[in-house]
Structure formats: C-alpha cells, structure tokens
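Hi, here's the filled form for the chain we discussed.

Project: internal
Contact: R.S.
Residues: 70
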Amino acid sequence: MELGIVGAAIATILSKGILAVYGIYDIFTGSGLKIERKHLTITREEFKKIAAIGLPAIIAKMASPVGNIL
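And the returned structure, exactly as it came back:
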C-alpha cells in the first residue's frame, strides 16, 4: 500500500504523539527526576528575566517579515 506523503504525515503524528504521552508519563512517575505542580510555577522576578531576554528576540524575528510586507 503506497501512502506517500500522507503516510509519512500519519507516521510522524503517531510517533510523536506516542512519545509525548510517554514523556509526560515518565516525567511525573518515572526515574529519578520528580517534577511536581509547584515546580511548574515561576516568580514575578523570573518572568521579568525571561521577558527581558525574549522580548528583543521576538521584535527581531518580527522585524524582517514586517519589513517585507511594507
């Protein structure tokens, strides 16, 4: 049976979906690494640091497409 590009897309979605489910399961129940809900929160100071680094990168990524449109 020849599925071509559709078959490749289906295989990719299935494999990534299975790995995502396994990854989430492993993070919360698996070996050594224990992540709890309290570890998934960030403080205001951490958010400010992330934004200070990310905002210039976002602006730089937007500048080229906006320039092309104009």
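Let me know if anything looks off before we file it.
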